[in-house]
Each structure stands twice: as C-alpha cells, then as structure tokens.
Design brief:
Low-confidence stretches: none
Mean pLDDT: 87
Number of helices: 5
Helix content: over 70%
Order of helices and strands: HHHHH
Oligomer: single chain
Radius of gyration: 15 Å
Shape: globular
Distance between the termini: 14 Å
Number of strands: 0
Structural class: mainly alpha
Length: about 160
C-alpha cells in the first residue's frame, strides 16, 4: 500500500508541475499583473479529496518549489508560495468542516490564493495602493475557483469509478 501512495505522490506532483508549465504557455491578456488561471490547483483540489490534506500539502509545496525554481525565479516563488500556503490552509479547513462542496472549497482556495499574493506584494513593494487590484483578483479568484472546482469534481468522479 505504501508503494501505491508514493506512486500517487509522484504522479500528482508531476501533473501539477506540468499544469503550471502549460499555464505559462497560454497567452493571457493581463488585467492584473501576474494573474494566472491556476490550472495546477486542479491537481491540489483533487489530491485533497482523493487522498488527504497531508498529501495535498506536500504536493502543493513540491509543485510551488519546483515550478518557482524552474520557471518563475525567486520573486515568483515568493508570491506563489504565499498564495499556495494560505489557499491550502483555507481549503483544508473548509473541507474538514464538511459544510462546503468541492466547488465551494475550490472557490475559497482561489480567492485566498489571491489574497495571500496581494498581501505579500504589498509588503514587498511597501505600497498599499496595490490593494486596488484586490477587487479584480477576488472576482477572478471566484471565477477560476469555480471552473477548477467543477473540473476537479468531474475528475474525481472519473478517478473513483476507475480505481
């Protein structure tokens, strides 16, 4: 059973890194600097529900660390890590309450990922005016969180039928 779990860790971590890379290749008109779709978070939400919070945390951390080092540099790693950690904590907490659907958990993850990043950006550049981006980020966090939640829910249905 342990070897199966390790295989899942490797599979999901590599999928999350791959999704992050694919996301970088998609041209996006930027309304807000640094805005992304969050495709790798599909994998994190799936792992949170398919495995457990410990596995999801590990895979999220490995994904952020490796993707940051490979594709984004130190600043990108800092912003991504802050968003991912806050997002993960909120998603794990909400899932544990059993009061929210997978889509609701995903929406909260998208919103708090953006909140975490804007807090760190505000501290790094020492300019509170960056908070003007927050309404746009919250809107897109809800939108992308909804899509990610739907995709994760559909994928989990497939995984549970096949495994």
């Amino acid at each position: 059973m342990q070897s199966k779990r390790i295989a899942y860790y490797g599979l999901f971590a590599s999928l999350a890194i791959l999704m992050g890379y694919v996301e970088m290749l998609i041209p996006m008109p930027l309304l807000v600097p640094g805005m992304k779709l969050g495709l790798a978070n599909v994998i994190i939400v799936i792992v949170l529900y398919f495995m457990d919070a410990k596995a999801a945390f590990f895979i999220s951390f490995v994904r952020v660390l490796l993707s940051g080092l490979l594709f984004a540099g130190f600043a990108g790693l800092l912003y991504s890590l802050s968003g991912a950690l806050l997002s993960f904590c909120i998603m794990a907490l909400l899932k544990k309450t059993n009061q929210f659907s997978i889509i609701g958990v995903s929406i909260a993850g998208g919103v708090f990922h953006n909140i975490g990043q804007i807090i760190v950006a505000t501290m790094v550049v020492e300019n509170l005016k960056l908070m003007y981006y927050l309404p746009f980020l919250l809107f897109f966090g809800v939108a992308t969180g909804t899509v990610i939640g739907i995709v994760a829910k559909m994928s989990l249905g497939y995984l549970n039928r096949r495994l």
